[in-house]
Design a protein that fits this description.
The protein is α/β, with parallel strands linked by helices. The protein contains ten helices and seven strands. The protein has a single domain, classed as Rossmann fold (3-Layer(aba) Sandwich). It starts with 20 loop residues before the first helix and ends with a strand.
Amino acid sequence: MKIDFHAAANRYSYASREVQPDWIAVIRSLVDPAGKRVTDIGCGGGIYSAAWADLDAAEVTGVDFSAEMVRTATEKNHGRTNVVFRQGDALATGLPSESADIVFERALIHHLTDYDACFREAGRLLVGGGQAIVQDRTPEDISLPGSPEDIRGYFYECFPRLLETENARRPTSQAVERALSRSGFGALRTITVWETRKRHDDFHSLAADIRGRVGRSILHALSDAELDELVRFVGRRLPADAPVVEKDRWTIWSGTKG
């Protein structure tokens, strides 16, 4: 079973978190968004589109292939006059050429097979000197052992087939760097970061998040019974009443359009 991004039942799965200060600090180390036009491709429920607006971007355009995600993102960002959402494909957004200063693609490319086409589209949207910022997990990012912070590691320990699925779809740094270079980007930079995903008051809050498969497409590969087994597995490794600060390791690639 895979997540159906077009299903109304999943429309809030990628809209319920808040972006944490550690991500904001990383972005500010890469680019100054103030006054810039940002296109957020694969925007989901618009969480990061809103974050770019909060970083004083002049305009933010979120693009997603799912009408349900676009509907949710628009709903969640009601009242933000500088944020709009459009349905479109990552390889052919339908947006005007040279309409962005920054193109952001978070947790997108592991769903794609043609990185070159994706990055060519990003290059088409950018003005000369504009910056592409791509955030995803590599096989190295996902292969770490589980811990009270890196909860996902417990998923793979409990169900090794999930790690096999992840390894099959996750991009390598070298593949992304080569595709960015072939697509006309220079001044390439690759960094590894830990981003706080969510702060849970206790294990029960985390368990509800896991059972809801909130923002975790990999968990759609598990049955409801397996999901209950996973919750029990994680619960044996965490104190029931202590807060959980859940983090994920990511790789971020950035490049400048020549």
